[in-house]
Amino acid sequence: MRISTQQIFLSNIDNLNSSSAALFKTQQQLSTGKRVLQPSDDPLASAQIQKFKKEIARTEQFSANIEVADRRLSLEETTIDQINNLSIRLKELTLQGKNGVLSDGDRSSIASEVGEIVKSLSSLMNTKDVQGEYLFAGNKGFTQPYTYNQSNGRYEFNGDDGQRYLQVGPENKVASTDSGFDIFETVPVVPGYIEADLTQTVSMVSNIDIDGGDAEEFGEYMAAHGPLTMSVDALGFLTVTDKNGQPVTAEDPAATLSGYKLSDNLNAPTFTIAGVELDISGANEGTATLDVFDQHNILNTAMDLKEQLETADFTTESGKELFNTKMDQILTNLSGIEELNISARTSIGGRINTLEQQLLVNEDYILFTEEARSSFEDMDYNEAISMFSLQETALEASYASFAAIKDLSLFNYL
């Protein structure tokens, strides 16, 4: 078998290129610390590496969600705690205001402090997070949850009762928001407390008064059917319809309030709906909308306290008795507000603890996954350095042998 000079040269060039490429690859592995530089280096390992990277990226997103939720819930907890401090102060002022030896000036001073507390409460209950969303608006993050309605003198809730959840683990979601409806609006009803303010919800040219009745029953009825529309035509016929336009049936006297002739019922100038008696004796031609608002939140309770302190009538025994009754109702309502506040803080604290525990779980999972990924992807430096030295020696030997072989020629012996 004859081997030509050209074959010798081409074969040595191929060997040198192959050895140089192998040495260069090892040098890249050493410089990057990665054993698998491209999928073709180890297809099976590459598939596992991609899987581990996705798991790590997903878990890191869970941890980022935990940071967002923890930041928001911590702000909520601080805000609600401040609101609780103000509610405690309102209870102190209510007890102080009940003191019968106080002068009108003393009660006026207490009312002024209550007014300042209302401003602070309004600011706290309309707190925004770092993203500019309101904490207590539910799913309506950019809608101011509490606004003052000049027409009825009450603070109204404009958000909804929704909560937003964040995924913080593969099978774990945590509520990162709370609605003001759940925290401030679901105070247990105080019997008799709602009655004093129902007349403020009526806007009508005629005179309709609301007295007595079961506030809780009426509130539930209005939640399902309200607002009610009441109208009296030129002939004196009264019609009352619910939010769907359906006629309302009174309990006493039992009648469907559609074309109810007032002049034929002069001996019964009242009718009862869901336990609440409405006085229609002064009704005249016109239209009114009857709705109820939840006056039990802390803002409106503070407004009621301020009003009682400013308008208290101590010149008569009946005035004193009414004042004490209203102050007792306010105290009871403040106790309900405090209990709801404690419940909200307990819930938030529990979720913050859950987030902390889940964050530790995520960190451990990332660590274990990184170790598994490293076993497939990262370079063993001891092995790589040994291989590099071997490849370097082999390349040097190839250069040396090629240098010797290329000088061989029959002409050297002629």
If you had to describe this structure to a student in words, what would you say it looks like?
There is one protein chain. With 414 residues, the protein is an alpha+beta fold. It has three domains: 20-35 and 381-414; 55-128 and 184-192 and 298-364, f41 fragment of flagellin, N-terminal domain; 194-290, no CATH class. It has helices at residues 5-32, 43-97, 104-125, 180-185, 215-225, 298-311, 317-377, 381-406, and strands spanning 146-149, 154-157, 165-169, 172-175, 207-211, 228-232, 237-241, 249-250, 255-256, 258-261, 270-273, 276-282, 286-290. The strands form five sheets. It has a four-stranded antiparallel sheet with strand order 10-7-6-13, with no helix packed on it. A hairpin with a 2-residue loop joins β11 and β12. α2 packs antiparallel against α3 and α2 runs antiparallel to α7 (317-377). The longest helix has 61 residues, at 317-377. Mean pLDDT is 77; it is low at 195-212. Residues 3-139 form the Flagellin N-terminal domain. InterPro entries: Flagell_FlgL (IPR013384), Flagellin (IPR001492), Flagellin_N (IPR001029). Belongs to the bacterial flagellin family. This is Flagellar hook-associated protein FlgL. It is found in: Bacterial flagellum; Secreted.
